[in-house]
Write a structure and sequence with these properties.
mainly alpha; two-stranded antiparallel ribbon; 6 strands; 416 residues; Cytochrome Bc1 Complex, Chain D, domain 2; binds heme C; 2 domains
C-alpha cells in the first residue's frame, strides 16, 4: 500500500515507514569481544587521524533562557501560518529527530508514521534530516543540497546579502516557516503573499509569526526576558535564535561507544572491529564520511533510487545543482553525517531505502535495489542519468553481505 502511494512500483528495496519507532540494535555476526590488539590499535589510529574528537569538543554553549523558550517554540504550531504544524510534527524524538517516513508530509497532514503519510497532507519531496550536531563547531552546511552554507568565509543562502544572521545555523532555522508545503499552505491567500518567494515576502510572513509569538502569554514574556527587550519589540530573528539555541543544545553530540573505544580503551565486538577496519580501509567510506561528524560536508552522487517524488518534479531531484546551477553538481547531495544513523530510517535524500544495509548497497550496486522492467521509461531515464556522475565518485568496490553486516555493526558504535 505504501509502495503504491509513493508510486515506486519498480523500487524493490522495501519502501516502508519506520513503524517501530523504538530502535533495536541489529544482531551482530560476531558479538564476542575483539582481542586482536594490532587491529584494535590500527583502528584507533585511523579514527583519530580522520578527525574524530571527543563529543565535548564539538559543543557550542548556548544561552539557557533562549534555549528554554526555544523548546516551547519548537513544539508550537504558531510557527505555521494556518496553525496546524510545528517543527516537532516532522522532527520527532521517537525517530531520532526525523519522522520515520521516506519523504516528509507537511501542511494538512495529521498523525505520525504511516498514518501521516496516508492523511492527505502535502508532500515535501525529501527525506527529513535529523539534528545531531547541527550548528556545533564546524557544522555549517545545511540541507541535502547545502542551500545554506559558508563559501570562502562568506555565508551563502537564499537571503543573498540580506541574511538575517551571520550564524549559518540560525539562517537555516529561518527557512522551514516560509517553505511552501512544509509549514506554509499553498492556498491562494498565502500563496499571494509568498508567490514571488522573495526575501520581502518571507520577511513579511515572518514578522507576522514574530507578532504571534510576542502575543502568546507563555512564550512572549519569556522571549522578551531572554533578549532583554519588550514584547512589542520582538523580531523573528530572536524567535529563530532561541529555536536554534534549543536544537543546538538538545541535539549536541554526546559520548558514544566509539569515543569510549578511541579515547578510554573501551571494548568493541569482533563485528564492530571488522566493520571499522572496512570503513577506514577497503570500504573507502571515509573518503566522504570523514571528519568529526562523519561527513566531508561536500556533495557527491550516489545512485539511490528516487521513487515518484523529487524536488524538480516527476521523480527527479537535481540536488546540489538547484543551488549552484553548475551541471557538474547534478544529482549530488551533502554526504550525510552518521551519528545515530541507525535510528533515522528510511535513508537517502529520497528516503527510498528502508535499511542501512540497502543504503550501503546503493553505493556500489544500485541496480540491485530496482526492478527495471517495472519502472516507467522516465524512471529508467533518470537512473541512466544518475549512474554517470556516480561512476566518477570514489565509491567502494563490491562488498559481501557479511562485510556490509560488519559495517552496520560498526555504525551502531556512533549511537548515543
Ligand atoms: C513537513 C515536515 C517538516 C517540518 C514541519 C519541519 N521540517 Fe525541518 N526538515 C524537513 C525536511 C524534509 C528536511 C530536509 C529538507 C532538505 O534538505 O531539502 C528538513 C531539514 C531541516 C534542517 C537542516 C538539517 C541539516 O542536516 O542540514 C533544519 C535545521 C531544520 N529542518 C529545522 C527545522 C525547524 C527549526 C523547523 C520548525 C520551524 C522544521 N525544521 C520543521 C522537514 C520538516
Ligand atoms: C563518494 C562519497 C561517498 C562514499 C565513498 C561513501 N558514501 Fe555513504 N553517502 C554518500 C552520499 C552523498 C550519501 C547520500 C546520497 C543521497 O542521499 O542521494 C550517502 C549516504 C549514506 C548512508 C545513508 C545515510 C542517511 O542518513 O540517509 C549511509 C548509511 C552511508 N552512506 C554509509 C556509507 C558507508 C558505510 C560507506 C562505505 C562502504 C559509504 N557510505 C561510502 C557519500 C559517500
Amino acid at each position: 500500500m505504501l509502495a503504491s502511494l509513493l508510486g515506486g512500483a519498480g523500487i524493490i528495496a522495501t519502501v516502508a515507514c519506520n513503524d517501530q519507532a523504538a530502535f533495536e540494535a541489529p544482531s551482530q555476526r560476531d558479538p564476542s569481544p575483539a582481542s586482536d590488539h594490532m587491529r584494535l590499535a590500527a583502528l584507533r589510529r585511523a579514527v583519530e587521524a580522520n578527525g574524530f574528537v571527543r563529543a565535548k569538543e564539538l559543543a557550542i554553549p548556548v544561552d539557557s533562557r533562549a534555549r528554554d523558550v526555544g523548546k516551547l517554540i519548537f513544539a508550537s504550531p504558531l510557527m505555521s501560518i494556518n496553525g496546524n504544524i510545528s517543527c516537532q510534527s516532522c522532527h520527532l524524538d521517537e525517530f531520532g529527530s526525523t519522522d520515520g517516513l521516506p519523504v516528509a508530509v507537511g501542511v494538512g497532514a495529521e498523525g505520525i508514521g504511516a498514518t501521516r503519510l496516508a492523511s492527505g497532507g502535502q508532500i515535501v519531496p525529501r527525506n527529513v534530516l535529523p539534528f545531531w550536531g547541527r550548528g556545533s563547531k564546524g557544522f555549517d552546511t545545511f540541507f541535502w543540497d547545502g542551500k545554506v552554507g559558508v563559501d570562502r568565509g562568506q555565508l551563502v543562502s537564499q537571503f543573498g546579502t540580506d541574511a538575517p544572521s551571520n550564524d549559518p545555523f540560525v539562517v537555516a532555522v529561518h527557512l522551514p516557516s516560509v517553505e511552501l508545503r512544509e509549514m506554509v499552505d499553498d492556498t491562494p491567500q498565502v500563496e499571494a503573499t509568498l508567490v514571488d518567494e522573495s526575501v520581502n515576502s518571507a520577511n513579511l510572513l515572518q514578522s507576522k509569526l514574530a507578532q504571534r509569538f510576542a502575543q502568546d502569554p507563555v512564550i512572549g514574556p519569556r522571549l522578551a526576558k531572554a533578549f532583554g527587550t519588550g514584547t512589542d519589540a520582538l523580531t523573528f530573528n530572536q524567535v529563530a535564535t532561541s529555536l536554534g539555541a534549543f536544537i543546538r543544545d538538545e541535539f549536541k553530540i554526546r559520548p558514544t561507544k566509539l569515543e569510549h573505544f578511541v579515547f578510554d580503551s573501551g571494548p568493541l565486538t569482533k563485528s564492530e572491529l571488522a566493520g571499522g577496519i572496512l570503513f577506514y580501509g577497503r570500504g573507502k567510506c571515509v573518503a566522504c564520511h570523514g571528519g568529526p561528524y562523519f561527513s566531508d560536508m561536500q556533495f557527491h552522487a550516489v545512485a539511490f533510487p528516487q521513487m515518484a517524488f523529487g524536488k524538480n518534479g516527476f521523480g527527479i531531484d537535481y540536488g546540489r545543482y538547484n543551488v549552484t546551477f553548475d551541471p557538474e553538481d547534478r544529482f549530488k547531495f551533502r554526504t550525510p553525517p552518521l551519528f545515530n544513523v541507525s535510528k533515522t530510517a528510511p535513508y537517502s535524500h529520497s528516503g527510498s531505502v528502508a535499511t542501512i544495509h540497502d543504503a550501503i548497497v546503493a553505493h556500489f550496486d544500485p541496480l540491485r535495489l530496482m526492478d527495471a522492467r517495472k519502472m516507467t521509461v522516465r524512471q529508467r531515464a533518470d537512473i541512466y542519468a544518475r549512474l554517470g556522475p556516480a561512476s566518477r565518485e570514489p565509491l567502494p568496490s563490491p562488498l559481501t553481505d557479511e562485510e556490509i553486516g560488519d559495517l552496520v555493526s560498526f555504525l551502531t558504535t556512533l549511537n548515543f
